[in-house]
């Protein structure tokens, strides 16, 4: 119970700071919108139906948007030298990780809630609302994967001079399985009716995401004490 | 020459506290290395409950590193450290609950107001009856009227006063002070000294300072660190201020030459 209160204290602080400064959300929103506008101009010139590529384009935009947000996970702690304050407090380091994963998850989800309907209007001709539940499950599981590994690596990168460069270099190879699964699920659902083979692919992708999320939540949770200290 | 002999005598870095009180902080053969560079060479000292140790020394002497290790911010390379009877290598969480840390850096979020900052830290330390405690401390540091103002708009002195409230929020029994008077206006210095006087009897203090007058007037023992070694350690009762000042200036001058 006390652990939950400590997690909530960090989460609430991150949310209040973000609502007050809007630094992370505005940069993520502008980036995702700009990406979609560029997609729109690039592909509409060829008059292609992008429905089949929807999943790939969507997660291309979200991957780089999430990197922008993750790089700023500890910006207040770093810029205002509050990291020592956090580390001096009697809180298990793993709880700091849990709180930071949750705040990153929330900020990424807020951007996606705005961006997905706009993306669907621009690029998707097929009405996928009957499978919206499955689509949302896929997005949430993918977000958990990105936020869990991303938060861990962002913590490792925080004390380096090249943190903006280091995070993508470390993170992009590691999220390939989650991205494959996310693109498979979103692509299948946005791409129109699908047969048995694609249904099997979607099912396998969901299983992979669950496994990936468990591994990349449990391992960093256990190792966090070693990366956040010195 | 006399001074050099005196310094050599202390090179074994082993200081025994011969007071009668309960040992609150015990440091034995503490070594800290960053890569190949060793910044603390087997230093040892004990502090009793209620002691006030002032640590002096030139920049890079290992003062802040010592304080960071004692406050569990960084791990020692080797050595045995006990705080309130708890070994630092065991679970450090209960040690953190006993420690308050005031540095020249206020450790406050600039886009939160004073109340939000204290509520945040209070929640992390699970302070009982938090709002009452915050009111009490804001009153004491004379910031009650600015409780809803963002820290971004505070002066350095106001930030430091709030930082004192932050450090005392959970009623720690040990206070670490890293150059706490640095950059403070005289009013803030008075508030800080007044607060330290008020809580003095039931607390143990370690203060890093370059301010000889302040450090010597507050302390019950004085230490000089140089190059990761304890080169001077004396209880205040046995301390000759002139001798101390001479030693300190000799060391600092030597470092700067």
Question: Quick gist of this model?
Answer:
The complex is a heterodimer of chains A (230) and B (257). Chain A has 230 residues and is mainly alpha-helical. Chain A contains ten helices and no strands.
Index terms:
heterodimer, A: 230 residues, mainly alpha, globular, B: 257 residues, alpha/beta, Rossmann fold, six-stranded mixed sheet, four-stranded antiparallel sheet, 9 helices, 10 strands
Account of the protein in words:
The complex is a heterodimer of chains A (230) and B (257). With 230 residues, chain A is mostly helical. Chain A contains 10 helices and no strands. Chain A has one domain. The mean pLDDT of chain B is 87. The relative contact order of chain B is 0.19. Chain B has 257 residues and is of the alpha/beta class. In chain B, the strands form 2 sheets. Chain B has a 6-stranded mixed beta sheet with strand order 6-7-8-3-9-10, sandwiched between helices. Chain B has a 4-stranded antiparallel beta sheet with strand order 2-1-4-5, covered by helices on one side.
Write the layout of secondary structure elements.
The complex is a heterodimer of chains A (230) and B (257).
Chain A: H1 2-21, H2 23-44, H3 54-71, H4 75-79, H5 83-88, H6 93-123, H7 132-157, H8 163-174, H9 176-190, H10 196-228
Chain B: H1 2-9, E1 23-34, E2 37-48, E3 52-56, H2 63-70, E4 78-83, E5 86-87, H3 93-98, E6 99-103, H4 114-124, H5 130-140, H6 156-168, E7 174-178, H7 186-199, E8 204-208, H8 212-218, E9 221-226, E10 229-235, H9 241-256
Parallel strand pairs in B: 3-8, 3-9, 6-7, 7-8
Antiparallel strand pairs in B: 1-2, 1-4, 4-5, 9-10
């Amino acid at each position: 119970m006390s652990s939950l209160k400590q997690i909530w204290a960090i989460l609430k602080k991150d949310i209040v700071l973000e609502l007050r400064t809007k630094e992370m959300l505005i940069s993520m929103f502008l980036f995702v919108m700009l990406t979609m506008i560029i997609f729109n101009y690039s592909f509409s010139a060829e008059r292609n139906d992008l429905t089949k590529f929807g999943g790939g384009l969507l997660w291309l935009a979200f991957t780089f948007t999430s990197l922008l947000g993750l790089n700023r996970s500890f910006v207040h702690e770093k810029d205002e030298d509050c990291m020592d304050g956090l580390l001096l407090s009697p809180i298990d380091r793993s709880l700091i990780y849990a709180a930071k994963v949750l705040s990153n998850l929330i900020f990424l989800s807020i951007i996606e809630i705005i961006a997905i309907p706009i993306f669907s209007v621009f690029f998707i001709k097929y009405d996928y609302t009957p499978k919206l539940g499955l689509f949302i499950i896929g997005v949430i599981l993918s977000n958990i994967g990105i936020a869990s590994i991303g938060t861990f690596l962002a913590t490792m990168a925080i004390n380096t001079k090249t943190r903006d460069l280091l995070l993508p270099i470390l993170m992009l190879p590691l999220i390939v399985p989650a991205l494959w699964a996310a693109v498979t699920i979103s692509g299948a659902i946005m791409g129109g009716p699908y047969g048995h083979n694609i249904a099997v692919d979607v099912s396998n992708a969901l299983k992979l995401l669950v496994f990936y999320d468990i591994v990349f939540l449990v391992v960093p949770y256990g190792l966090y004490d070693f990366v956040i200290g010195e | 020459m006399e001074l050099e002999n005196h310094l050599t005598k202390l090179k074994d870095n082993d200081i025994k506290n011969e007071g009668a009180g309960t040992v609150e902080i015990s440091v034995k053969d503490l070594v800290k290395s960053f890569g190949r560079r060793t910044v603390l060479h087997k230093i040892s000292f004990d502090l009793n409950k209620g002691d006030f140790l002032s640590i002096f020394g030139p920049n890079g002497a290992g003062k802040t590193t010592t304080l960071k290790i004692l406050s569990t911010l960084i791990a020692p390379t080797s050595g045995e450290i006990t705080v309130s009877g708890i070994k630092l290598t065991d679970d450090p969480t209960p040690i953190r609950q006993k420690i308050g840390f005031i540095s020249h850096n206020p450790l406050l979020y600039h886009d939160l107001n004073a109340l939000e900052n204290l509520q945040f830290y209070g929640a992390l330390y699970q302070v009982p009856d938090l709002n009452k405690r915050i009111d009490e401390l804001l009153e004491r540091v004379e910031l009650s009227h600015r409780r809803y103002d963002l820290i971004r708009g505070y002066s350095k002195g106001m930030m430091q006063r709030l930082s004192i409230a932050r450090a005392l929020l959970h009623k720690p029994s040990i206070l670490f002070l890293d150059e706490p008077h640095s950059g403070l206006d005289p009013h803030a210095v008075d508030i800080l000294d007044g607060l330290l006087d008020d809580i003095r009897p039931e607390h143990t203090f370690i203060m890093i300072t370059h301010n000889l007058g302040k450090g010597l007037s507050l302390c019950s023992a004085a230490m000089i660190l140089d190059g990761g070694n304890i080169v001077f350690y004396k209880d205040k009762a046995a301390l000759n201020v002139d001798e101390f000042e001479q030693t300190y200036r000799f060391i600092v001058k030597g470092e700067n030459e």
